[in-house]
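input
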Amino acid sequence: MRFLVAALAYILNPASWGGSQGIGVLLAQHLGYSLAGVAAAAVVGVPLGWWVGHTGRGRGLAVAASTTARAVPTLGLITLFGLALGIGLQAPLLAFVILALPSVLAGAYTGVASADPEAVDGARACGMSPWQVLMRVEVPLGAPLLLGGLRAASLQVIATATLAAYTGAGGLGRLMFLGLKTQDYARMLASSLLVIALALASELVFATLQRLCAPAGSRRTRKDT
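output
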């Protein structure tokens, strides 16, 4: 209990937020690393997932790749990339992209593949091209599932971004490593609490976006029930 009180006191102390190793800078770095990893994964995973969901081609390969990527230990990837790329942000950022990619890919192709067949058939009957069907019907209908994939990816990367400090980068993991080195367990716990708070904030943002992007009919159905 005393470690929790000390950790909260450390977080609430204005002096802890200043300087290059302060909470403010490290929190911004942690959020930046997480956003960069998920964004890079989305650049690759979203178009690929839309193509897989729309055409039905390569679904088995996409599922196998996603399962394999989830099984790879992130710390092992960071160590491997760190040996190849050296100290800095490149190694952990590449590992974060690989960590986020399965969830992003799954959300993208599942969202498109689960679009209402009647709506898709109606769009084709109206003379829409395959590209128009994808972008005007399947993608909007699958947006909540895509956001669900981004939501899961963000949560995973935020929780893992503490490992960026393992290769000399910043982020909230720096507090954890410094606390471990100096046996300052209150600082280590403070780092953990800040990561949890950041993850909860991410969950709240994506949950709100999912509700806003849900088709109007489904929103009314949930309200009625």
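quick obs: Residues 220-225 have pLDDT under 50 and may be disordered.
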